[in-house]
Specification:
Layout lengths: L5 E10 L2 E7 L8 E2 L2 E3 L6 H13 L2 E15 L4 E14 L10 E7 L10 H9 L4
Parallel strand pairs: 1-6
Antiparallel strand pairs: 1-2, 1-4, 2-3, 2-7, 5-6
């Protein structure tokens, strides 16, 4: 079997000096905090992906979507490998809510100085390379 990395996308949504994190449930990284996001679909632009994923997961609209960074993430215990593309954006409208309760336990705004624990591997890798905000 020819294994290849999957492409994940993380959306850094900024609002009032904070950014949104969600606590994962039911998939790899369960219990870890992550940005909204998901998988890049075939023939989908990064912008289309992050706008879609943010709406699907939080019910929010975002704006000022820009490339932020990339990480190479190995989940050795789960035998998974992802390349994660991080996109930064600004909050536009609608208060965030859990739209997929089977995939998310909690949702909240955080500052870079006060982060929840544990963080999802791609976020840990991103923090090692640059500041989030």
């Amino acid at each position: 079997m020819d294994k290849r990395p999957k492409v994940g996308v993380g959306v850094i949504v900024r609002k009032d000096g904070k950014f949104l994190l969600m606590q994962r449930k039911g998939s790899h990284g369960s219990g870890n905090w992550c940005f909204p996001g998901g998988h890049l679909e075939f023939n989908e632009s990064f912008e289309e992906c992050v706008i879609r994923e943010t709406m699907e997961e939080t019910g929010m609209k975002i704006k000022n979507v820009k490339y932020f960074g990339i990480t190479n993430d190995m989940f050795k215990d789960e035998d998974k490998h992802y390349v994660t593309i991080f996109i930064i954006s600004d909050y536009e409208s609608s208060e965030p809510k859990i739209m997929e309760p089977d995939k998310c336990n909690s949702i909240a705004w955080f500052t870079q100085e006060v982060l929840p624990s544990p963080l999802f591997i791609p976020i840990k890798n991103l923090i090692r390379n640059k500041n989030i905000y």
